[in-house]
Design goal:
Keywords: Cell inner membrane, Cell membrane, Magnesium, Membrane, Phosphoprotein, Transmembrane, Transmembrane helix. The chain is of the alpha/beta class and 889 residues long. Helix content is 49%, strand content 16%.
Length: 889
């Protein structure tokens, strides 16, 4: 028996297998608990000793971030070479290179660590709650606050929050495939069903991380956090996420740079060795070229963008569980969403009860209150948990007048609601001994089990559906002598009436749908509600449903035909969780990026199947765990803000990539050519690294940049072919002006090595930094597209620093020499001509590039720009689920 006793004496925990093999009463006794749980003081003391009920928390660890910065093979090789040069008699160069490397690593570290802190702050805002008995009363408690001895209520769709020894169950089944590999749910009991300890664990214990698939139950917590079965496995294996499309693009882009750098580096090294230059100088120069061509601070730029974007989205009530999900939001082209709380207010209120003849009456209301799954406090009679319809029924003013009559009944057995039957049933006994079965649920399901339905009742139901109201049907059957209740008993029922609820359309839903349409996102509704109700709500919001598919239609259609119907259908009604997932997968198979917004247990499969799973903070635990993005309010307008932010981040990231690769390639190509023509190195290794550091520092302001409307009105994708073509087209243009500078320095200023290097350093830094203003937009810069003020100041500031460096006291140590005034006049002329030529080349490139579909500003672009202007900044690259749907699904 594994029992651990903590210092206070009563803070103990049990292994779930051992606890499941013991009688429930003995487990409660060993844990110092009872059927009504612990006291608040006991729970507080145990939490202080055993710690929070969490397997791991997202914490920003500076050592791990620093390790990732130092992982670059090029940086490591440069550091080794700098050490070697120190011992080979070049201490000054070694020191300068070392300082530059430290500064480069430091910049990347600071920005990535800030991004990690942003992710940590987001994780702290995401919480799961459960109903726990403390001080003799049930209440909602944050899952991380659970301790051994707590008594927890389990309901349909909840994730088991800790390892439990079950005390009572009602048709409880748990989905345990994540831990046991079993595909079918496991039925639970309160007594062992065999002598085998493992079998007892499966039947009498509920394991942390498993899902309540059917029924309900109560259990006592025996182990939390890393002591639970799931916790032990998770801590042993760690956590890995599949690579996302964004990360795949980064990886392919990096491989492109590795190949280009390898060719240039080896070529330059061979040339310098053949020209009999010192091997150490040739090696340092070649490695500096390799570092110079790679955008070293790309991870920092991405991290800064995603972190800033996540903070801005959090202020607008959008939480991303992993920062890379912001990028994924920008890719969305089709959004599948449920109806309740998204298109409607989600504040369900009880309107009226109608009897079997369609007249207002109290009897269906009383029967509906008897047949429910609400969790009530026995002391105060307050409802502390349950589904939205039951809560609306209990909290309605009409219920107060009926509650006194409920005292005549005693509930004997409950058959919980499930998504296949769509019914909940109870067996009750009246004070005179009469027993009655009451069933309540979806009207189609209840009426199908009734022996007869009056024409007036059917007409009343159709009228409520046509008005867009939510309706629950109630039916009964006398059950003299009955002691048990199963779904098979839900037959030959007598229709007793309807319960009508109001869930009005959300005030801002129409405008939100219009915004999503402007962003090129098609919205489709997946709901378990009646087809007529769903179509009415959509039509009221300007989302016409010319064709409505039902679950029966989906079931009867093969994948090929269903894929065709999905493209033409806006509303899918009365569909099961499996249907939702199938529809999402088929839509993804068409090549579109799909998001799914849902908050119920029946949405979990579809959330997993989508490219981006979106849920809300008030959702079931299963939905929140399956989602990539959480909305603090279930509002499509908030989601539209997230899409705009994602597209802005990608647009700004691509600005850095296109500009950095083209200008760096051009400069390094120029260096390779100069090595052949000159009798000295055109730039010292330390100067190349300093140039690269200053240039990249200015680009850290790119995440603040404005994005043009056409960059926001539709998704963008990584295209390595486009990047390669851009690099090969614009790089040589940059080299033309480098060679012009070489000629001017040699022919006009008759420069020796120090003056030549100073001139090229300043020209190189100015052209590659200022070109961002042309490359950042496909429009005319400054006139039709304005850069952000931080980017403008950063670029001008770095160019100014570079121009002044040769005249500072550091010039001699860096190998520079003051430049004549005429040079700066020449530099201004060269920069103006260079930017004009880049502008002309840009227009030709985008007009003829086969990989690029020309972006035309949509008619509504000014509206997108106006709304998007609220989001100026953009955040690290953490993963999400794979983009491609598995074959055969």
């Amino acid at each position: 028996m594994m029992v651990a006793t903590a210092p206070p004496g009563d803070a103990v925990w049990l292994d779930v297998a051992d606890a499941a093999a013991l009688p429930a009463e003995e487990v409660l006794a060993r844990l110092g608990s009872g059927h009504t749980g612990l006291t608040t003081a006991q729970a507080r003391d145990r939490l202080a000793v055993l710690g929070p009920n969490a397997v791991r928390s997202h914490r920003a660890r500076w050592l791990a971030v620093l390790g990732r910065q130092l992982r670059s093979p090029l940086l490591i090789l440069l550091a080794v070479t700098a050490v070697a040069s120190f011992f080979l008699g070049e201490p000054k160069d070694a020191l300068i290179i070392g300082v530059i490397l430290v500064a480069s690593v430091g910049l990347g570290f600071v920005n990535e660590f800030r991004a990690e802190k942003a992710a940590e702050a987001l994780q702290s805002q995401i919480e799961h709650r459960c109903v726990v008995w403390r001080d003799g009363h049930p209440g909602s408690v944050e899952v991380t606050g659970l301790v051994p001895g707590d008594v927890v209520e389990l309901r349909l769709g909840e994730i088991v929050p800790a390892d439990l020894r079950l005390i009572s169950v009602t048709d409880l089944e748990c989905e345990e495939s994540a831990l046991t590999g079993e595909s079918l749910p496991t039925a639970k009991a309160t007594k062992p069903t065999g002598a085998n300890t493992a079998l007892a664990e499966l039947t009498c214990g509920a394991l942390m991380g498993t899902v309540v698939r059917e029924g309900s139950g109560t259990g006592v917590v025996v182990a939390t956090g890393g002591r639970a079965a799931f916790g032990k496995i998770a801590l042993a294996l760690g956590e890995r996420h599949p690579e996302t499309e964004f990360q795949t693009g980064l990886r392919r882009f990096s491989m492109l740079l590795v190949r280009v750098a390898a060719v240039l580096t080896s070529t330059i090294f061979i040339i310098n060795v053949v020209l009999q230059r010192p091997v150490v100088d040739a090696l340092l120069f070649s490695l500096a070229i390799a570092v110079g061509i790679s955008p070293q601070l790309l991870p920092a730029v991405v991290s800064t963008s995603l972190a800033a974007g996540s903070r801005r989205l959090a202020r607008h009530k959008v939480l991303v569980k992993r920062l890379v999900c912001i990028e994924d939001l920008g890719d969305v082209e089709v959004l599948f969403t449920d109806k309740t709380g998204t298109l409607t207010e989600g504040r369900i209120s009880f309107m009226r009860a109608l009897d079997a003849a369609g007249h207002v009456g109290e009897e269906p209301l009383g029967l509906g209150l008897l047949c429910d799954e609400a969790i009530t406090d026995p002391g105060g009679g307050q409802v502390v948990g349950g589904n939205a319809l039951d809560l609306a029924l209990w909290n309605s003013p009409a219920a107060a007048t009926v509650r006194e009559q409920l005292g005549r009944y005693r509930r004997l057995v409950l058959v919980p609601f499930d998504h296949e039957r769509r019914i909940v049933s109870v067996l009750v006994e009246r004070d005179d001994g009469h027993r009655l079965i009451i069933s309540k649920g979806a009207p189609e399901a209840v009426l199908a089990r009734c022996a007869d339905v009056p024409a007036q009742g059917a007409a009343a139901l159709e009228a409520e559906f046509a008005a867009g109201n939510r309706v629950v049907a109630v039916a009964t059957r006398d059950a003299p002598g009955t002691t048990t209740l199963t779904p098979a008993d839900e037959r030959d029922l007598v229709f007793r009436g309807l319960l009508v609820f109001l869930d009005p359309s959300k005030a801002g839903a129409r405008e939100a749908l219009r915004r999503l349409a402007e962003l090129g996102i098609t919205v489709k509704v997946l709901t378990g509600d009646n087809p007529a109700v769903a179509a009415k709500v959509c039509a009221d919001l300007g989302l016409p449903a010319a064709q409505v598919l039902t679950g029966a239609d989906v079931e009867a259609t093969d994948d090929t035909r269903l894929a065709e119907l999905i493209d033409k259908t806006t509303v899918f009604a009365r569909i099961s969780p499996e249907h939702k997932a199938r529809i999402v997968r088929l839509q993804r198979r068409s090549g579109l990026d799909v998001a799914f917004l849902g908050d119920g247990v029946n949405d979990a499969i579809a959330l997993h199947a989508a490219d981006v799973g979106i849920s809300v903070d008030s959702a079931t635990d299963v939905a929140k765990d399956a989602a990539d993005v959480l909305l603090l309010e279930k509002d499509l307008a908030i989601l539209a803000d997230g899409v705009v932010q994602g597209r802005r981040i990608f647009a700004n990231t691509m600005k850095y990539v296109l500009m950095g690769t083209s200008s760096n390639f051009g400069n390094m190509f120029s260096a390779a050519g100069a090595s052949l023509l000159l009798g000295f190195l055109p730039m010292l290794p330390s100067q190349i690294l300093l140039n690269n550091l200053l240039y990249d520092t200015s680009q850290l302001a790119i995440p603040t940049d404005n994005a043009d409307p056409e960059q926001l009105f539709r998704p963008s994708r990584w295209d390595v072919r486009l990047i390669r073509r851009f690099m090969l087209f614009f790089g040589p243009i940059s080299s033309l002006f480098d060679f012009a500078t070489f000629a001017i320095m040699l022919q006009v200023f008759h420069a020796g090595p120090p003056l030549f290097r100073s001139g090229w350093f300043v020209e190189c830094l100015a052209t590659q930094t200022l070109v961002i203003f042309a490359i950042r937009t496909r429009r005319i810069p400054f006139f039709r597209s304005h850069p952000s003020l931080p980017l403008l100041l950063a670029a001008l500031g770095v160019v100014t620093v570079g121009a002044l460096l040769p005249s500072t006291p550091l010039a001699n140590a860096l190998g520079f020499q003051p430049l004549p005034g005429l040079f700066f006049l020449t530099l201004v002329t060269l920069v103006i001509i260079y930017l004009a030529l880049i502008e002309l080349g840009k227009r030709w490139f985008y007009r003829t590039a086969p990989e690029v579909a020309r972006h035309r500003e949509p008619p509504h672009a000014h509206r997108i720009h106006r709304r998007a202007s609220r989001f100026t900044v953009a955040s690290t690259s953490l993963p999400r689920k794979a983009k491609t749907a598995p074959a055969g699904q």
